[in-house]
Amino acid sequence: MQTFKEFLAEATKAKNKFKTLEKNKVPLADEEREECLRKKAVWNNHPNPKCNPIPAVWKSVNKNGKTTYVTATHRAYNTASTLKGAIGRYHKFIKGTA
Question: Which residues contact 5 (CB under 8 A, 6 or more apart)?
Fold first, then answer.
């Protein structure tokens, strides 16, 4: 069983990893955006209805050029090395946490 101190250390590490991903966020390419829309990996909650739907997946590229696709809500996030993987994670897990 995990101690609270170990749990807190893991949670802090995950939070820092997410902040790094956010810091390295870049726009999706048009083809990637279209793939998200076609596979219905989208959010429809933008305050401006003309902006809906918006992709539920975003892209982060680190300083070494490694691309990570991220799907997240305010409760959880998940990553994948491919867009297809991130879309799958959105449908299997993230959508249910919204």
Answer: none
